[in-house]
């Protein structure tokens, strides 16, 4: 299985925040600011439209030596030959994703902040785990809270890269990195910024 040594800013797109017209320019600005991992998250719309967007994003990301991860949708990931997929606890089983996408695909798993879920994800072939939400989130205000103490505990438990998500900013991100996070996932804080490139650069300087 290919090793995913992920680190840095993990940008996640939001269909409610970015229109079809603004998606590519916004991601382009994030890449110019040093982002090297982009997750495409879009729940609505025709499959062919999502394929077209994801394919364009893949071209853009790869031109900047960045990876494109698809949220939840293995079919879409295969359709555009993206770098991998991110799965929630209610999505396709991780083992099935690994079987379908092969040994070199990047497969992430949301594990909230539960050590047992992290252990299960690692056993099933995850490339990284995502923990959160650590702070109040604009995107998912009702998501279960996660603790810094559990982040430290999980850091000792797993060798997998850890993504911290939920209300992450340049002001609180350093605390998460010091506690063991390898990547900081940002949505609203990045893509709602007046200057996306400057915000990405500001976040990258935390590492």
Short description:
The protein is of the alpha/beta class.
What does this structure look like?
By secondary structure, the chain is α/β, with parallel strands linked by helices. It has a single domain (8-204), classed as Aldolase class I (TIM Barrel). The protein is 41% helix and 17% strand. It is built from 9 helices and 8 strands. An 8-stranded parallel β-barrel has the order 1-2-3-4-5-6-7-8, surrounded by 6 helices. Strand 6, helix 6 (148-157) and strand 7 form a beta-alpha-beta unit. Helix 1 runs parallel beside helix 2 (47-63), helix 1 runs parallel beside helix 9 (196-204) and helix 2 crosses helix 3 (74-80). The radius of gyration is 16 Å and the shape is globular. The two termini are 26 Å apart. The model has no long low-confidence stretch (mean pLDDT 94).
Give the distance, in angstroms, between the N- and C-terminal Cα atoms.
26 Å
* Secondary structure tally, helices: 9
Detail the poorly predicted runs. none
Tally the structural domains: 1
C-alpha Rg (nearest Å): 16 Å
Q: In the CATH scheme, what's the topology name?
A: TIM Barrel
CATH class membership: Alpha Beta
Count of beta strands: 8
Strand content: 15-25%
Which strand order does the major sheet show? 1-2-3-4-5-6-7-8
Structural class: alpha/beta
Mean pLDDT: 94
Helix/strand order: EHEHEHEHEHEHEHEHH
Shape: globular
The name of the CATH superfamily reads Aldolase class I
Largest sheet: 8 strands, parallel, barrel
Architecture, according to CATH? Alpha-Beta Barrel
Q: What is the helical fraction, as a range of percent?
A: 40-55%
